[in-house]
Design a protein that fits this description.
The chain has one domain: NAD(P)-binding Rossmann-like Domain (Rossmann fold), CATH 3.40.50. The protein is built from nine helices and eight strands. The protein has an eight-stranded mixed sheet, with helices on both faces. Helix 4 links the parallel strand 4 and strand 5. The protein starts with 8 loop residues before the first strand and ends in an 11-residue tail after the last helix.
């Protein structure tokens, strides 16, 4: 198979279904060899990767003439993440791309959230982005130090919930915001080794979204463009995974249907300098003046 990722080797975490499946298939169409990582068939991550949806994705890739392997390592486990990266190197001789996609949800209003729910979501999303990337970076840094020209890619998955917040998703929003921040630091630190890091904030129909945003995620029945299909997101992922995206780093892209945009993120706003220590009543006057001049923040998803 040939395409913009020909000869590249990519890991896609959580790629048994939904967005991850679409990413894995598109990368394969574009010529990449793919490690299809997934724990199993259930939304909570349980299941058997060797007989579950990950194996089905590998079969689809092989049927189109591509190369892929199944991997069932836990991306949020330190040793599991190392094993995941090593599986790509053992199977294909190298690794070029890590697409961090795996996630779980435990949607709950903040006042009702439990410690276990919080820990589960933050672990899979945030540590599950850190650990595979960390082991991949070690591989890429070693190659760079050996004199090889590295063209490596980290593609992280944040969310509109992480950029704007989302009612009933405090843990998910916090984890996804953390991923956006992680992406900025990765980009700043790793460019010297030939590694870029970018994030995507997709809006698409997955098991995580179709039960929460039922009407928005509904598949059209009239044959019109299915804007919420996860397949619409994957061309951006494939391009970011390619050599052609060299020099694009530290960005978060929002993508939905046929639309793509670059998120602008936090920026320093206007400043009032008192030239000395503030007295508390005066702080209030200054803050209200700054707020009057500042643009209104984007509304949190789920608010009116």
């Amino acid at each position: 198979m040939s395409g913009i990722c020909e000869g590249r080797v990519a890991i896609v975490t959580g790629s048994g279904r939904g967005l991850g499946r679409s990413h894995a298939l598109e990368l394969a169409r574009q010529g990449a060899k793919v490690v299809v990582n997934d724990l199993g068939a259930e939304l909570d991550g349980s299941g058997n990767p060797t007989t579950g949806p990950a194996a089905d994705v590998v079969a689809e890739i092989e049927a189109m003439g591509g190369e892929a392997i199944v991997n069932g390592d836990d991306v949020a486990d330190w040793d599991g993440a190392q094993s995941l990266v090593q599986s790509a190197i053992d199977a294909f001789g190298r690794l070029d791309v890590v697409v961090n996609n795996a996630g779980v949800v435990r949607d709950r209003m903040f006042v009702s959230a439990t410690e276990d729910e919080w820990d589960a979501v933050v672990r899979v999303h945030l540590k599950g982005h850190f650990a595979p990337s960390r082991w991949a970076v070690q591989h890429w840094r070693d190659r760079a130090k050996a004199g090889e020209e590295v063209q490596a890619r980290i593609i992280n998955t944040t969310s509109g919930a992480g950029l704007m917040g989302s009612i009933g998703q405090s843990a998910y929003s916090a984890a996804k915001a953390g991923i956006a921040g992680l992406t900025l630091v990765q980009a700043a630190e790793l460019g010297r080794y030939g590694i870029t890091a970018n994030g995507i904030a997709p809006s698409a129909r997955t098991r995580m979204t179709e039960g929460v945003f039922v009407e928005m995620m509904a598949k059209p029945t009239d044959g019109s463009f299915d804007a919420m299909s996860p397949d619409n997101v994957s061309p951006l992922v494939a391009w970011l995974a390619s050599v052609d995206s060299s020099g694009v780093t530290g960005r978060v892209f929002e993508v939905e249907g046929g639309k793509v945009s670059v998120a602008e993120g936090w920026r320093h706003g206007s400043v009032i300098d008192n030239g000395a220590r503030w007295e508390p009543p005066d702080v209030g006057v200054a803050v209200r003046k700054l707020l009057a001049e500042a643009p209104e923040p984007a509304p949190v998803y789920g608010t009116t």
